[in-house]
Amino acid sequence: MSNESDTKREDAELFRAAMKDVRRMASDRIAMRKPPPAPTPEQSRRNIDEVLTEMASGKLDHEELEYGDEALFQRPGVSRVLMRKLRRGQFAVQAEFDLHGLSAAEAKSNLSTFIHRSSERGMACVRVIHGKGHRSPGKRPVLKPKVVRWLSQWDDVLAFTSARPVDGGTGALYVLLRRR
User: Fold this and answer.
1) Is residue 35 part of a domain?
2) What is the CATH number of the domain that holds 142?
3) What is the reported pTM?
4) Mean pLDDT (whole number) for 152-180
5) DSSP state of 165
6) What is the spatial distance between Cα 39 and Cα 43, in angstroms, rounded to a whole number?
7) Which end of the chain is more exposed for a tag (fewer CB within 10 A), N or C?
8) What pLDDT digit, counting tens, does each position of 89-103 carry?
9) Is the pLDDT of residue 29 over 70?
């Protein structure tokens, strides 16, 4: 028996010697790892980026879209707050251009000149009146899809949206311009 108790004593002494530099912890809690960050929807972000790139590149076929409803375009970097103000007609319209009676070629050339000169003059917002197409064959707008495509391709244009009903509704656009 003494042999067994001697072994226990030796084990205890060996244990104390091995533990002599160990200090008691201030807390008995286990340090937990921080929770991982929420996953980011990478595929959704890529899909949105692709749509915006396609819209900005002008490859979107605007002629296939329905045009009874509001037209809307914004470049990346144009804030939602700015777009909300534009849609509500809260920008002072500094000039306007009416395309009624013009052919598509005349409309494009004259509209391009108007947009470029307005931007050069430091104008922030202009109104473009393209009409609703009520007098067009098939009662469908002819210039509206073309104007939407042209404006979305020109660098001077930051954003546009259909005007409020009092300013022409879906027959006109408020256009936000890049100031030079």
Assistant:
1) no
2) 3.30.1370.110
3) 0.61
4) 90
5) G
6) 11
7) N
8) 999 999 999 988 888
9) yes
